Structure formats: C-alpha cells, structure tokens
Amino acid sequence: MTAKMHEFADAAALAASLADEVAAQLETAIRDRGTASIAVSGGSTPKKFFEALATRDIDWGKVSVTLVDERFVPADSPRSNHLLVSTHLLKDKAAAAHFIPLYYEAPSIDEAAVIATEKTAGIGHPFDVAILGMGGDGHTASFFPHGNNLARALDLSRPRGVLTMQAEGAGEERLTFSFASLSDARFLALHIEGQGKKDVLEAAKAGSDETDMPIRAVLNRAASPLQIFWAP
Fold this sequence. Notes:
The model has no long low-confidence stretch (mean pLDDT 97). This protein has one domain (26-223): 3-Layer(aba) Sandwich (Rossmann fold). Helix 1 crosses helix 2. The strands form two sheets. The chain has a seven-stranded parallel beta sheet with strand order 1-10-9-6-2-3-5, with helices on both faces. Strands 4-8-7 form a three-stranded antiparallel beta sheet. It is of the alpha/beta class. The protein contains eight helices and ten strands.
C-alpha cells in the first residue's frame, strides 16, 4: 500500500486544506451516489479541522457522520468523542448532518457494540471518508498495543462493525470500528501534528509488529491509499 505525506506550515493551514479535501470528497459522493458518509476521530488534534469543515458549503443534510471510535462514557462526559464532535463539527452548516453515535446506554459494553453495529449498518460500505488519528504509543482508532481484542480488530477477513477494546493505555473501555470497516474508505487520511507524532510514524514505518504499534496495520495493509496530513 502507498502512503502520501502532505506537510503544512502549521495546524491552521493543515485544518483548512484537510477540510477542503474532505468537503470535495463528500460533494463527489453526494453527486455520484446521493449521500455521503464520514467517520472521524476524537482527541485534541481534530478540533481546528472540525471547525473548518463545519463552515464548508455542501449539502450536509445528505451526510452521515459517525465516529471511528469512542470511549464507553455518556455523550455529556468531557471524555466523550460524541461531545467533541457535537461541539466542534455539528454546527454552522454541518448542523444539518445526520450523526450516528457509537455509545449507547446498555447493561454492558458488549451489548452497546452490538447496538452500534446495527445503527451504523446502513453506512460505510465503504465510508466515503475516514479520518484517523494516532497516539504516541502507535495506536489508531482504538487499536491499542496489546489490546484484548486487537487481533480480531485488525483481521480484515472479519465482518464490518463495531467491537470493544480494553488496553492498559486506553483508560476507559472503548468501542471501535474494525479495521475491515475503515480500511477501504474512498478517502483514508491520517491526521497528526507535532514532531513527536512524526517520529512515532517513522518508528512505525521501520518495523512490522502490529501488536506493538497497531498503526502499522494501516500503513502496511489498508486497502485504500493512505493520505497523511502533518503539521509541526
């Protein structure tokens, strides 16, 4: 698989360029298929990108937005990716988008994963856009190093859907789309910022153990070309 690096002078320039590219991808999907789908990541890195994308003039009423992964916490928790997206993306013009969360109140996270798989079954075959992030430990989505469900999550032969993840570095239990659900996105991007993240990416490229640095699965086995967006 090929990966293309797009480097920018600063985070603001990256956010604007990524928003332009994603908007174009969503517009193309709407024109060609009538609807569009996008899966986005949480954390602090995407906030500027979300703010920029929310202002782009596309037919948001035909766009379904979901999360690449989520903590098993209610939507009003400050740790919730749902709250992050609601605050920074689902506003302005993008307020018209249809949001499909991954967290659902259920007796167990396993039952929540089943509900999330059912609720998202109508989108993402493949996703028009999937935006990944990466942690300093080399995790992406909720594919954490040595996570309890990592082998299953990274198995491209498994069905699409949402599964659970527990790992030492994850904090809360997680809900995450499988690699099979994200790998073939029509536009697959990795959004990272800072020299530290660039160094982690270089370390990932230099090795092959996916259980140690799961981002390697995306670098080496994703079905779609990976577009890497980086700024200092």
